[in-house]
Amino acid sequence: MDWIGHILILLLFILGIMFLLKKGSSWNSSCPNLPPGPRTVPIFGNLLMMDLKRPHKTMIELSKEYGPIFRLKMGFEEMVVLTGYETVKEALVNQADAFAERASVPFFEDFTKGFGIIFSHGENWKVMRRFALSTLRDYGMGKRTIEDKITEECSVLMKTIETYAGKPIDITTIMGAAVSNIIVSILFGKRYDYEDATFLRLLKLFSENIQLSRTLDILIFNMFPKLALLLGSRKKRLNNRKELHTFLQDAFIEHLNDLDENDQRSFIDSFLVRHREEKKRTTEGYFHFENFRSVVSNLFAAGTETTSNTLRWAILLMMKFPEIQKKVQEEIAKEIGIRQPRTEDRLKMPYTDAVIHEVQRFADIVPSNLPHATTMDITFKGFFIPKGTHIIPLLTSVLRDESQWEKPHEFYPEHFLDSEGKFVKRDAFMPFSAGRRACAGEKLAKMELFLFFTSLLQKFTFQPPPGTSKDDLDLTPVVGLTSIPKPYKTCAVLR
Which residues cross the membrane (predicted)? Predict the structure, then answer.
């Protein structure tokens, strides 16, 4: 595939001259106290020095030379990278309003058109996020009602895994289906069987689009959007979007036809009630179809991808460190026994809680974070950053900050335990990001992780397939928009 990259770079070089005639830097180089950064190359900026498969690794290395706040240029896009717990916290928490915007990235804008929650802007983002949070709470997020749905799904997942009778399996699909069914039950008011063709297709569409985010031509598209017609990944992603939107349009119409405002049974019903209310007004509102499909897509993807991949990391790590798996199982046996785990059990299970937290820290699911942008001109830690600047609050630099973690590059559950074995919170634990743009489904994800993980280890011991030792297990992630484990198989042996 290297020759394809060389051809694309050659095309960039040839076509870049046209861009130079049309677009200059958004920064005024005469501004005092701009963040430092490496020298740039015309057209490419700092592209040629980046590890394109793991750009966050390059950023970590650059921070050692230029400090925790530095400037990068990718193509024509100027951006500022924030590294380390203290710097990221200062920006996202202490100065949350100044860093609350979402950067305008062609890859995201092309797909969502600025609607929804995750990649939207300004008032649209505020209205949709506020609605999503309140509605998710109405349908049980963080409450016993949603916990019951998770425990029911745990039972289905356990029975499905048990059918493999300890033979090697790739759990990617069934884990994704089990986790996804929780957010699906909120969005659509129902769950799907793991073999349901429509459900499997939806999961594949979302998975493909996240995988496409790792490709070189999407990176090029982000830097030079006018090259879009030359890039195959974008075309594939737009085809997936069209298929997804067709499904959501059908769901929109179906729920609208059956809507009973006095008996709302799903997130979609609640959205449609607001949609009807707005139609009665003369002013244009936010509860229209474009926001509907983007919000539902955002919640579906966010409620599936990160949690299911964290659980896949958890099982891989339990195979890699069987002594840790055994200690978790001993705590489960002592505190829960054979009954169904419940959320309140977490308070008396410090080691299990520590292991789950350490899985999240070590897995580093979104290493580069989602891009932010400044809402105003700001002087931040002595450096001037203009309004609208693309900001990368590098989460991997927080989760592996050597000043915050004893063994930042190792899997070490003791990060979350004190000398007496009690669970301790760590301020630098930010897998859900922080501030105004923190993950809206954090409470739901935490509940899912605990209940699924404890249920799995209560029922099974996870071992490498025959002929594979724990030393053969590769913990090198596949990194793109998210960091996922390489494909693996496991043997789930009944306890």
Answer: 6-21, 171-192, 212-232
Q: Kindly report, residue by residue over 415-465, the tens digit of the pLDDT.
A: 999 999 999 999 999 999 999 999 988 999 999 999 999 999 999 999 999
pLDDT digits over 111-133, tens only? Answer: 888 899 999 999 999 999 999 99
Q: Cα-flanking dihedrals φ and ψ of residue 338, to 5°?
A: -105, -5
**Pairing assessment for the beta strands 460-463 and 383-385 based on DSSP bridges:** unpaired
Q: Residue 353 in contact with residue 361, Cβ under 8 Å?
A: no
Beta bridge partners of 463: 491
- Per-residue b or e along 273-297, where b marks 16 or more CB atoms closer than 10 Å to that residue's CB: bbbeeeeeeeeeebbeeebbbbbbb
For the segment(s) 31-494, the CATH number from 1.10.940.10, 3.40.50.1780, 1.10.630.10, 3.30.590.10 is: 1.10.630.10
Rounded to an integer, what distance in angstroms lies between the CA atom of residue 355 and that of residue 343? 16
Structure tokens at 374: 């400044």
Cα 456 to chain centroid distance, Å, stands at 23
31 annotated ligand-binding residue: no
The kind and range of the H/E element at 102 are strand 101-102
Cα gap 256→269, rounded to integer Å: 8
Contact 224, 199 (CB under 8 A): no
- Stretch (H or E) spanning 352: helix 350-363
Q: Where along the chain do its domains lie?
A: 31-494
Distance of CA 346 to the CA centre of its chain: 24
Mapped onto helix, strand or coil, the DSSP state of residue 166 is coil
233-276 pLDDT per residue, tens = 677 777 888 898 888 888 888 888 888 888 888 999 999 999 98
Strand, coil or helix: 113:
coil
Q: Which residues contact 448 (CB under 8 A, 6 or more apart)?
A: 150, 179, 182, 307
Written as one string, the DSSP assignment of 211-227 is HHTTSHHHHHHHH-GGG
Lookup: tokens for 331: 């705590």
Instruction: Please check whether residue 392 is in contact with residue 79, taking contact to mean a CB–CB distance below 8 angstroms.
Output: yes
User: In sequence order, which residues have a C-beta less than 8 Å from that of residue 398 and are 6 or more positions away?
Assistant: 84, 85, 88, 89, 404, 428, 430
Residues paired with 385 in a beta bridge: 378
**Cα atoms in the Cβ-side hemisphere of radius 13 Å centred on 291:** 21
